[in-house]
Specification:
The protein contains five helices and ten strands. The chain has 191 residues and is an alpha+beta fold. The chain starts with a helix and ends with a strand.
Length: 191
């Protein structure tokens, strides 16, 4: 969310640069343009360095209980919970992948959230529902790592709900493929 503000501020500054360079004429406009470009360069470098500190929990997973209480969990908090890992192939990638993360059932139990269904929401707004009764101890998991590496958004991160597809044909269904939501940002427990 902070990136959007940086872009808006940057565009406003560009607008003012164009306005003042036209208003002040060519020589003064060029001098002003050089100074403002230096300031903008400094601003962009500064935001690159300190921006992540402001948005440190930008990849926090939101979990909302049926009583509308929302908890934000960052990567360290998810890693502190019991981890499940498996190697499996997916229909979206080639070869086997090592997934690790927290079991969805274990997460809800840890948070003491109860309900009938969960809604999982991705960064792009994709939403899928799943009955809590369908959750198993080790499947699905909220994968925080892909082959031991933290998943960036461009590689289906920061969190990806996955099943051990190769371990049992019951995981290789269209329903479970649809539930395998990547770029997961929010889980909502529904009564």
């Amino acid at each position: 969310k902070y990136i959007l503000w940086y872009i808006i501020i940057f565009l406003c500054l560009i607008h003012h640069i164009s306005f003042w360079s036209i208003l002040l004429g060519s020589y003064f406009g060029k001098v002003l343009m050089i100074k403002i470009r230096l300031v903008l360069t400094f601003f962009v470098l500064l935001m690159t360095l300190i921006g992540p500190a402001f948005g440190q929990d930008g990849n926090a997973l939101q979990v909302t209980g049926s009583q509308s209480e929302t908890i934000h969990l960052n990567l360290e908090e998810l890693d502190a919970l019991a981890q499940t890992e498996f190697v499996t192939s997916t229909i979206w990638s080639s070869g086997e992948i090592h997934f690790s993360g927290v079991s969805l059932k274990a997460l809800l139990k840890h948070l003491q959230f109860r309900g009938i269904n969960i809604e999982m929401i991705a960064l792009d707004g994709y939403t899928v529902s799943m009955p809590i009764a369908d959750l198993e101890d080790n499947a699905p998991i909220i994968s925080t790592r892909l082959n031991g590496e933290i998943m960036p958004i461009r590689r289906n991160g920061p969190y990806w709900v996955v099943f051990p597809y190769d371990s049992d044909p019951k995981y290789q269904t269209e329903v479970n493929f649809a539930r395998s939501i990547w770029q997961l940002t929010h889980i909502r427990v529904v009564d």
